[in-house]
Amino acid sequence: MRRFNLLSNTPLRFSAILFLVFLGAYVIAGIFAYFSLSADLDERVVRPVTFAIAGFENVYEMGGREALIRVVAARADSADPEDEIIWFGGLAQTRLAGQDITPPAELQSGRIFGEDLGADDEFYEVAVRHFGNERLIFGRSYEQTDEIQETLIGAFGLATIFIVILTAAIALPLVRRIQTRLGLIISTLQAVSAGKLQTRIALSNSGDDLDQMARQINSALDQLEKNVESIRQVSDDIAHDLRTPINRLGIILESANANAEDKEKLNFLLERARVEVRGITQTFNALLRIAQIEAGARRERFGKVNLREIAYLLFDAYQPVAEEHGCALFFDPDSVTAIVILGDRELLTQLFSNLIENAIQYSGSGSKIQLELGWDGQSPYMGVSDDGPGIPAEEHENVIRRFYRMEKSRTSDGSGLGLALVKAICELHKANLVFRDNSPGLAACVFFPPVWTLR
Amino acid sequence: MNFLIIEDDLMTSDYIRNGLSRNGHGSDSATDGIDGLGMALRNSYDAIVLDRMLPGTDGLSILKAIRGANIATPVLFLTAIGNVDDRVEGLEAGADDYLVKPFAFSELSARLSAIARRPAMVVEQVKLKVGDLELDLVRRTVVRDGRTLDLLPKEFLLLETFMRNEGRVLSKAMLLERIWGFHFDPQTTVVETHVSRLRAKIDKHFGYPLLHTVRGVGYSLHAPL
After folding, report:
1. Chain B neighbours among A 347-386 (CB < 8 Å)?
2. SS3 for B47?
3. Where are the alpha helices (DSSP H) in A89-141?
4. Cβ proximity of A199 and A191 under 8 Å
5. For the segment A75-92, what is each residue's pLDDT rounded down to a tens digit?
6. Within a 13 Å sphere around the CA of B189, how many CA atoms are in the beta-carbon half?
7. Could you say which residues of chain A have pLDDT below 50?
8. N or C: which end of chain B has fewer CB within 10 A?
């Protein structure tokens, strides 16, 4: 089960931080805009009041008190009291003209709540102008600007909510998607840790960084699985190939114990035990060597190898052995000039020694074995062919595989790992092992890659 | 001769020491690298058997330390892994030969006597002589009892190797390494075949045999005792 811990969720944390920073900047900008707009709106109320007072002063100067009363009365008739306050009277609340309000005697200019003057319940920008013992009160309502401000705040709030919802609507599925994909990677790796090595991360094919990472992890897992498989194969093979001789050894030792009195028999059994131990050691060494070759570590030791030299060395070593077995080994060192490839001399020697020994052991008495090397286009090859009974063409592929799996189809006194080793050495050299019908007989040929060929 | 065995497995160590003492040789043993190094520096041995895997300091470092101290005592390196890198590292660090575990005492003994100190040859010999058999390295001829023998190049090299190691047992593995450069165990009788051909040429039709088979170990060339 995957725990959904908010703080441990990297994409969610990143989007939350980004969102909060953005929201903070947005709110600060909003507040700034609001205040500068408010100041501008207030100015739109204050200025007409100043102008109007200046106008009334003008009337008073030109026409005196009576003219002012007339103008005030006319203005009061046409003005909407919700919008405008106009009043002229004494210091006490004795009205000479204007609306029916009750301004307190100590009233000063400024922002005044309407009900304090006996007007409507809203704010007014009020100016008080004294003419002798009388005063003129003029005010304009903030109602409209307050409404604009309220609308502004409302709109701002709505926009904020909209942004929050929109961000969440976009970010959460994205976060969830990333979270799902990361979860997929995590659960895959958990499955691998739990031993399911064949598990792979499903790719989204988007080619993005997560996809690339998943691809890399998958290819690392492929390699891991291959290596583990190879180790498993080796341990299976060890078990398979060693169990029988170890079992035999146990029987021999038991029987030696039972025959401890009979010195001659005891010696015979101990000698047999020694032979078994030698066989076990050989098998073990061969298996380890195959595993080591398959791991590819030896490629670091590659050097220049002349195939012709190897062919001659092997011909020289095995020609008498072939004769002992009643066959003839042929090689014409003058048939080809030096062929130099990059490789491991020791392993290549062992490879062809194996092929020659197979031919000597299985082609039968009287057969001719030919060791040859040459060029197949850009690709050098070296092969061993015989005119013995051979192997049916449809079996060629199987032979490598079967021997590779070390199921001995032919009785031999060897470890039976010969062709498995041959195949491993070929793979190390990226060479291609091909069995062909030599009609009659079998031709085993190794083709080397042109890239590792030196001219 | 006196040998030093540096090996942490007591059973293996005792096995080697018992075998050596049966052959009339003395030996000291050390179970860890530091002790072994100290003994190699203090005493003079004819050869040292050194295990690759030791507790604490590994065999390779000990070998380097011994060679670093200008001690030229021949060293036989024992490895349990037997892969090429192991072998090459050992030889590069100054080992004279190597042997892969598990091994038979006869093989160890053959290799030890082949590398152990021998009287320094002042002059590079031109002629090798064992009994009535003579090998001329310059003219590349082999003569026994006055008769010239016709040897193939590999047979000549084989005989030269036997004659230079007169009286010493050479194992099949040693011959495969020295004559053919094979570091693997062939499934066929490569050594046996070549030795028997050589034997047919140098021993057949002569009064007494020089080339002897040492059962379960290898071959040895020597005049009648």
Report:
1. 349-350, 353-354, 357, 360-361
2. strand
3. none
4. yes
5. 888 888 888 889 998 887
6. 13
7. 1-2, 402-414
8. C
